[in-house]
Amino acid sequence: AKNHFTLGRSDYQRQYEAMLYGWKSGNKREWHGGRNQSDLWFYDKPTHNTLHPTMKPVELMERAIVNSSRPGDIVLDPFSGSGSTLIACERTGRICRTIE
């Protein structure tokens, strides 16, 4: 959840962003996180960031990466922006491929 609205034209303004993850065709889906986790995660984020307008907290990306991959796995982020996923992969021993 965010402490401010996300961009959109809905009647009710969202204060969250959906996160999607997948796996390579032919591979089995794997889950490495605990089963007691909610789908709503709270992380501190500045209300304004001068480096990148949609910067994600590295800790948030680390949690998603650790839950859904193993050390040495390849993580693809096609919207890498400020590089939070790249930093999270470095910290958790994953290989990161990014596109912006």
Structural write-up:
- The structure is a single chain.
- With 100 residues, the protein is of the alpha+beta class.
- The chain has a single domain (1-44, 52-100), classed as Vaccinia Virus protein VP39 (Rossmann fold, 3-Layer(aba) Sandwich).
- The protein is 20% helix and 8% strand.
- It has two helices and two strands.
- The protein has helices at 58-68, 84-92; strands spanning 74-77, 95-98.
- A two-stranded parallel ribbon has the order 1-2.
- Strand 1, helix 2 and strand 2 (95-98) form a beta-alpha-beta unit.
- Helix 1 packs across helix 2 (84-92).
- The longest helix has 11 residues, at 58-68.
- It is globular.
- The protein starts with 57 loop residues before the first helix and ends with a strand.
- The mean pLDDT is 86.
Keywords:
alpha+beta, two-stranded parallel sheet, 2 helices, 20% helix, 8% strand
